[in-house]
């Protein structure tokens, strides 16, 4: 890993392709994911979006009893399938325990979720039987109610019953460490009696916006100034990716200001810098990173927007109590907000997820960018040579998702990005995508 000269950055063929740069980031994320982050315990209602630090195990058989999946009648399948009347021997609703076993030649009224009485091996659905009031005697048992399975329907053993421990046995591992906790995982943990969970600490992600033209959001911009919207956007994206955002004061276009900001950010697990990474006279971020001892994986990618993207590492300081023991990973993102958003989703988000422990002991499916397929509704013409990510809107109402470009005025057009819910991906060797073709989209 070595610095790339400014003249080299202007020449696309010398830069890595999107696939090559993605592979380098993925390899870095995989290495980071092998480092165990710190752990804290949080209440279950605060665990959404966190990452499980230890396996979740069943505290009991699941389900703890054979339960019915339908409203109907528990029975013996062989007896019900003869279509003879079966005396109704009892009734059980969810939360009740059957008063006894199922007698021979009988059925047991049962509700969804209720325990199945011993002796029963199936449940016939309510709508599949006829019920009548007549005295039925069978094997010494008599009842004024009876049911009969409507012919020619028959039923098999186990139908409409979830057997005890069919989902899990006591002590089984239900979720591995490294699992992202969503609403389903919270419900599962709650079913195991977990009022709190051990989760990985969130990585601290420093966000540094640079440029003399920037002012804080609450300020009134002067002539030739703009508000620092990128920091707020990236803070939201960092949180969504599993990190804890740390927004630093704006750094000015001077070596002194940048050096001080980089020194302050060195205690972070990941540093995101916006602006100052192109090849202009006042693009001073790369020289500042070099002075700070950074090593670069790449200093540009053949994509649009986001071509000047920088990815490297700052040296580890032994006194810093940070999760990443190999130094602070850093991304220099282009200053335009659409470029920052695209490059974050493609490259920085997987590293944030890895630092957060996603997939640390389990599957790594949650660490990469989220792509999907959709049908293009209109022709798109572009130039070859760069993989392009264009703001687009995808509708998911039909059988096949459909996507169309959002009109935009370049990578500074925040209004266009706010109207988009994805980016259309145009391969670098394509000069035209035809309406009706299946295309790839990057989800926001």
List keywords for this structure.
alpha/beta, 6-stranded mixed sheet, about 450 residues
How would you characterize the overall build of this protein?
The protein has nine helices and 28 strands. With 444 residues, it is α/β, with parallel strands linked by helices. A six-stranded mixed sheet has the order 7-4-6-5-9-8. Strand 24 and strand 25 (402-405) form a beta hairpin. Helix 2 packs parallel to helix 8 (337-355) and helix 5 (229-241) runs parallel beside helix 8 (337-355). The longest helix has 19 residues, at 337-355. It starts with 5 loop residues before the first helix and ends with a strand.
Query: In which range does the helix fraction lie?
Result: 10-25%
% residues in beta strands: 25-35%
- Uncertain spans: 1-8
Mean pLDDT rating: 90
Rounded Rg: 30 Å
The number of helices is 9
Note the gap between the termini: 31 Å
- In total, the number of strands is 28
Shape: elongated
Write the SSE topology.
Blueprint: H1 6-9, H2 18-33, E1 39-43, E2 56-57, E3 67-68, E4 72-75, H3 77-80, E5 86-92, E6 106-110, E7 122-125, E8 129-138, E9 141-149, E10 161-162, E11 173-175, H4 183-191, E12 196-200, E13 204-209, E14 214-215, E15 226-227, H5 229-241, E16 244-247, H6 255-265, E17 270-274, H7 285-291, E18 295-298, E19 303-304, E20 310-314, E21 328-333, H8 337-355, E22 371-376, E23 380-381, E24 387-395, E25 402-405, H9 414-419, E26 422-426, E27 432-433, E28 438-443
Parallel strand pairs: 5-6, 13-16, 13-17, 14-15, 17-21, 19-24, 22-25
Antiparallel strand pairs: 1-12, 2-11, 3-10, 4-6, 4-7, 5-9, 8-9, 18-20, 20-21, 22-28, 23-27, 24-25, 24-26, 26-28
């Amino acid at each position: 890993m070595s610095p790339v000269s400014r003249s080299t950055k202007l020449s696309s063929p010398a830069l890595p392709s999107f696939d090559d740069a993605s592979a380098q980031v993925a390899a870095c994320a995989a290495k980071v994911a092998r480092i165990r982050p710190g752990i804290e315990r949080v209440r279950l209602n605060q665990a959404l979006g966190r990452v499980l630090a230890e396996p979740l195990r069943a505290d009991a058989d699941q389900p703890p009893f054979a339960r019915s999946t339908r409203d109907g009648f528990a029975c013996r399948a062989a007896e019900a399938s003869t279509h003879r009347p079966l005396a109704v021997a009892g009734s059980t609703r969810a939360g009740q325990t059957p008063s006894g076993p199922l007698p021979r030649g009988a059925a047991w009224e049962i509700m969804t979720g209720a325990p199945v009485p011993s002796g029963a091996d199936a449940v016939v659905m309510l709508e599949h039987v006829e019920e009548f009031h007549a005295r039925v005697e069978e094997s010494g048992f008599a009842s004024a109610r009876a049911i009969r399975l409507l012919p020619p329907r028959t039923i098999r053993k186990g139908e409409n019953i979830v057997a005890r421990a069919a989902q899990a046995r006591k002590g089984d591992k239900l979720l591995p460490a490294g699992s992202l906790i969503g609403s389903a995982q919270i419900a599962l943990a709650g079913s195991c009696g977990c009022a709190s969970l051990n989760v990985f600490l969130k990585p601290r992600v420093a966000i540094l916006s640079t440029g003399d033209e920037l002012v804080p959001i609450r300020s009134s911009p002067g002539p030739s100034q703009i508000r620092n919207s990128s920091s707020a956007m990236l803070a939201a994206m960092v949180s969504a990716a599993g990190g804890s955002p740390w927004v630093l004061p704006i750094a000015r276009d001077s070596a002194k200001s940048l050096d001080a900001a980089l020194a302050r950010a060195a205690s972070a697990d990941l540093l995101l810098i916006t602006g100052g990474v192109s090849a202009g006279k006042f693009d001073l971020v790369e020289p500042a990173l070099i002075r700070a001892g950074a090593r670069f994986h790449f200093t540009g990618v053949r994509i649009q927007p986001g071509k000047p993207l920088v990815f490297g590492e700052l040296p580890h300081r032994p006194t810093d109590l940070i999760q990443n023991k190999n130094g602070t990973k850093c991304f220099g993102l282009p200053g335009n907000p659409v470029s920052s958003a695209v490059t974050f989703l493609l490259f920085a988000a997987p590293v944030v997820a890895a630092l957060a422990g996603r997939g640390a002991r389990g599957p790594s499916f949650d660490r990469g960018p989220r792509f999907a397929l959709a049908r293009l509704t209109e022709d798109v013409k572009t130039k070859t040579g760069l993989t392009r990510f264009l703001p687009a809107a995808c509708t998911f109402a039909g059988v096949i998702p459909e996507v169309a470009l959002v009109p935009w005025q370049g990578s500074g057009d925040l209004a266009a990005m706010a109207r988009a819910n994805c980016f259309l991906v145009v391969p670098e060797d394509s000069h035209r995508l035809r309406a009706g073709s299946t295309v790839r989209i990057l989800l926001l």
